[in-house]
Amino acid sequence: MGEYVLEMKGITKEFPGVVALDQVSLNVRPGSVHALMGENGAGKSTLMKCLFGIYRSDSGEVRLDGKPVSIRSARQAMDLGISMIHQELHPIRHRPVMENVWLGRFPGRGFLVDHHAMYERTRELFQQLELDVDPRVPAGTLSAARLQLVEIARAVSCNADIIIMDEPTSSLTENETEHLFRIIEKLRHDGIAIIYISHKLEEILRISDEVSVMRDGRLIGTWPSSELSTDDIIKLMVGRDLTNRFPPKTRRPSDEVVLSVRNLCSSEPGSFQDVSFDLRRSEILGVGGLVGAQRTEFVEALFGLRGIASGVVTRNGERFLARSPREAKRHGLALLTEERRATGIFGILPVLENTVVASQSRYASFGVLKEHSRTEAARASCQELNVKTPSLSTLIQNLSGGNQQKVLIARWLLTHSDILILDEPTRGIDVGAKYEIYTIMLRQIELGRSIIMISSEMPELMGMSDRIMVMCEGRVTGFLEPEQFDQVEIMRLATQFSK
Amino acid sequence: MFSIFSIKEKRIPRSRYYFYFCLVGGFLVLLGAILYLAKRGLFFTGLGHVVNLKRIFDLPFFLVLIGASLGLKGLLHRFSRGGEFGELEEDVIFSSKTFANFMTRYAILLAMLVLVVVICVIQPRFMQIRVALDILTQSSTRLIIALGICFTLLIAGTDLSAGRMVGLAAVISTSMLQTAVYANRFFPDLPQVNLYLPILLAILACMIFGALNGFLVARYDMHPFIATLATQVIIYGVCSLYFDLPPNNSQPIGGVRPDFAALGQTKFLVGSAPGGFPGISILIPIAAVICVIIWFILNKTVFGKNVYAIGGNREAAVVAGINVFRSIMGIFILASCLYGIGGVLEAARTAGATNQYGAGYELDAIAACVVGGVSLNGGIGRVSGIVSGVLIFTVIQYGLQFINVSPMWQQVIKGVIIAVAVAIDLTKYRRK
């Protein structure tokens, strides 16, 4: 056996309009914990999905124990001894835990499943991992943390040589994290290599042997973790040049508060708590944080898509808590969701319908549409935002991501909303279109509107915001004024996990 | 799939493409006129030696009709304005790819045309205006029901209660519209009420159940399949209970008042001479008017646009602030109103009703919609497609009966059509 159990060389992966991985090479030693770090969108998950056969890289080579392999499916990856614990768990909730563990490889003869053997093996496995779970209860009855541990047990049961753990501790409490670390310790002792993705720096330094840092789809380097401090890692993660350009701002926020949020708490456990801020006229309030900071959940609740347990929202002196997007719309709020395809556009409908869908009743009398005023409004709005489309009757799914996003902004401008909530407004959009979106945002500011912008891209956050609110685990950990804007400071606030 | 036909790629300007339409249309009109004149023995009598003029029946009329509509389509497109973003009229490309596209797009329609030609050859009597009118009449009530069900399909749902609502409306309306002298009256002491009162009652009863459907789907987020299945069973039970009321005790309801029967049986322009013009059934204009109304609702009202939006992406519709609850309620109530109208007309046409009326109509209606291009995934579907879907089924059913194909084989063919139509429809989307 060579020095490395896994060697990835020159892995490149392009998605339409964006290079997700650029010549990434990663070497992992057997019996070691290899931490993979980077900001959101740095390419960690993409790299792991290439390794696990979910994506196919455009170029590059993967070697296992020195032998080149080409992995085309998750199934094949598992056969080759790679197993992955996904960030998002998808258990079959009403089937027993043991069936979830052995799914796809039930013990038995032919087409008959040997339930007894399955039970025995699961029990043995759980005992070995000191996991106190009855294999016969439905998976859905377990807590998220327990499920995560079961998922880890499943990965272990595959007799894998390499286990990929993508944010395994995001739903674990301290006790369970300790439990996980004991399991990892044991696996390392058995000679299994673990690729560990996490944002939690202290955790990384405690558990890992080596740390690789990625940034913008490139591997910055690999260091033994004993040589690194948390500050070093943060600097490596964010230390890029500000090459992105932003249009110049010509207007400062006024002092007039247009939206005031006080002590807003989610009705969902584990989601945002105690969020308070004031939004001023002509202000762009940036919201920073890592995956799992509950930023999206927060703005969706503000917009009436999720439950709110307590708190006060005041708008123009009127208190309201939106129970539905319709109510939020009435109060002049607009939301561009993070998942443009899933919850934004109507893919099979033309640009025209997509533009006017939220303001339809403005062009109707007694429910009957005035075709002319409707088309004119859509045309004017699309032209104002420079939407590039062959015609208004083109299906929106045939436009580029940037133009789809412009149509969505046009949609909300037609509702005369003056508070725009933009959740990752430039995700999956190429650089040129990004600049256009920024220009549109600044024009709205000049017209006296206000913007709440969630962004996971540091340069965007710092380049566009008048103020940055940083969240971590559903809490606001700090506000930064422009003179305090600093990547390291933002990252410090974003990783301020409660003990 | 059709790559065996390799055609050299050829481009022609769109205006010329439509010119060809006019040309073909003109030719067909001319041909029809010549045949007509020859048949009447006025001109071109020499043609009689080539074609048996007795055996072409009303073919000249159909030729003129098809030719005129083709020509009109060509003319309209040729002289219409371009798109709103100053787009250029694209050339029409003839290649094996566009040919394959054409074939998949119109496969069912082409299959129907082939079938019609085959039937005409086997049984030339098929080429009669009488037959065409029969087909239209038979399609009328089906069309009304299909137009109702299309709303539920457009939001990626379905409605299994449609057929039973037809039966309910038929039973309620006939039970109150019997002649005073009929022996087995449903309500022996009921006076002769205004014709429209029982009809409105019947439709209202359907709308109440429609509201139940909508409420279950919108309020509890129940899948329409199961919600409408439950309603279907309830409606059948309620209808049977009503039908079983003494003194009727589940006897078929007959003795329908003539003014009610007239709603389904009146014919206009009936020729006086025997074998003359068979007349246009009143059902045809009724269905046409409802078609126009539904087209208007779907394309010109906020409600219609919301239906497409909810079907296209329900999550996005919620985010866009559309009142999804109200829209879904509206959809099921409107649909049930149409089933009610269909049921009343069906009862008037047959001058009677039993609680078995309408059983299984919903499946025929769904099949017609799907063949007409309504996507079961929601958001896609046009009134013109539904009209052709209903017509295709009636033409095929009527045609097969006409050449004495056994009803069992008819079922097999019908099933194959549904499967093939949907398979083709799905490949169309997969290509994107």
Radius of gyration of chain A: 25 Å
Give the mean pLDDT of chain A: 88
How many domains make up the 3D coordinates of chain A?
A: 2
CATH architecture title of the largest domain in chain A: 3-Layer(aba) Sandwich
In spatial order, strands of the major sheet of chain B run 1-2
Q: On the 0-100 scale, what is the average pLDDT of chain B?
A: 87
Report how far the terminal alpha carbons of chain A are from each other: 41 Å
Return the CATH class of the largest domain in chain B: Mainly Alpha
Strand content of chain A: 25-35%
Summary, kept brief:
Chain A has 2 domains: 6-238, P-loop containing nucleotide triphosphate hydrolases (Rossmann fold, 3-Layer(aba) Sandwich); 257-494, Rossmann fold, CATH 3.40.50.300. Helices cover 32% and strands 25% of the residues of chain A.
Structure notes:
The complex is a heterodimer of chains A (about 500) and B (about 425). With about 500 residues, chain A is α/β, with parallel strands linked by helices. Helix content of chain A is about 30%, strand content about 25%. Chain A has 17 helices and 24 strands. In chain A, strands 6-9-10-3-11-12 form a 6-stranded mixed beta sheet, sandwiched between helices. In chain A, strands 18-21-22-15-23-24 form a 6-stranded mixed beta sheet, sandwiched between helices. Chain A has a 4-stranded antiparallel beta sheet with strand order 2-1-4-5, with helices on one face. In chain A, helix 8 (about 230-240) packs across helix 17 (about 485-495) and helix 13 crosses helix 14. Chain A is globular, with a radius of gyration of 25 Å. The model of chain A has no long low-confidence stretch (mean pLDDT about 90). Chain B is an all-alpha fold and about 425 residues long. Chain B has 16 helices and 4 strands. Chain B has helices at about 15-40, 60-80, 95-105, 105-120, 130-155, 160-175, 195-220, 225-245, 260-265, 285-300, 300-310, 315-320, 325-350, 360-370, 385-400, 405-430, and strands at about 10, 90-95, 265-270, 280. In chain B, helix 5 crosses helix 15 (about 385-400) and helix 6 runs parallel beside helix 8. Residues about 80-90 of chain B have low confidence and may be disordered. Classes of the chains: A alpha/beta (about 500), B mainly alpha (about 425). At the A-B interface, helix 10, strand 20 and helix 13 of A face helix 11 and helix 12 of B.
